[in-house]
């Protein structure tokens, strides 16, 4: 019995000395529980602990290492992907017992190994029926990898998970039902080129890119049955093949592409400083084009519009003048040609005197009189004729 305890102690000491080994460009998962601190308690007591992880002598973790606590497993998990050229580093983990308030401290050495098989080709997936802690289950991960190795990507013997995140972290909304999983986003990478099966599958899901929101229960892909049998419900709108030239991320101007690497020595003058561009590299702006666009073009359009309106009004006025000065000719019953201008405002004194003095007089007039007054082309009645014998009594009616 003592021999067995001594062997376990040696193995535990060797494990502490060696630390955790991780590969670059591949997701690693480190469980954190009471056993990490050498505390032997019942599994039901795992909820009585809280954990906090950070870099040694630092307040927080690097941006590519994430921590989450799983209520399903009653454990905390550290996961992430080490960048290229990352060296060894050390993490410190603090565990707090909520019952006794005892604090346990653990220093974890991380041995980073460079991945020989560079993942030049990646498959972007979004699985709707998984949570982030479900992806920490080795059985679930191996089932997904075997599906690609044996059915979809036969040449990719070195396929592995190169990216892992919750769908909420990628911008998705939390489900309305708290019991419904929020989804997981991951990438499967390999050094082998994409197979024809994957290329055809990408062509099948291209029509879905135009639909928003994406149909959640879309089952019309040829390989949907394979994923359903393995209990994976994929969001086919997010399915995408990414090659090496498409996966190069653009870094910000404040830091270079290697600033996420822990322990890298950078020049003091270049660390976290804005790189001032040269004056010759700054594009020049033509103010003539701006003035032409904002001043001359609107002025020219306004002048053209005013010219068109002026021309339209002038032509309309000339047509109106011609219409008023055109004589109206007609032939009467006795063969006498009558010429009269269509000027409604012109009239004889007799026709003006025939107008009613009040509105009540117009109601007593005969229909013939009102008809003659309403027609501007009817001549007034001639004055009464008186012979030359009655010169003294000559009377003219107007």
From TrEMBL:
It comes from Fopius arisanus. It is a single-pass membrane protein. This is Alpha-sarcoglycan isoform X2. Its main location: membrane. Residues 1-19 form the signal peptide. Residues 350-369 have a biased composition (Low complexity). It is found in: Cell membrane, Sarcolemma; Cytoplasm, Cytoskeleton. One of its GO terms (molecular function) is calcium ion binding. Keywords: Cell membrane, Cytoplasm, Cytoskeleton, Glycoprotein, Membrane, Signal, Transmembrane, Transmembrane helix. One of its GO terms (cellular component) is cytoskeleton. It holds the Pfam family Sarcoglycan_2. Residues 13-119 form the Dystroglycan-type cadherin-like domain. Component of the sarcoglycan complex, a subcomplex of the dystrophin-glycoprotein complex which forms a link between the F-actin cytoskeleton and the extracellular matrix. The chain crosses the membrane at residues 295-315.
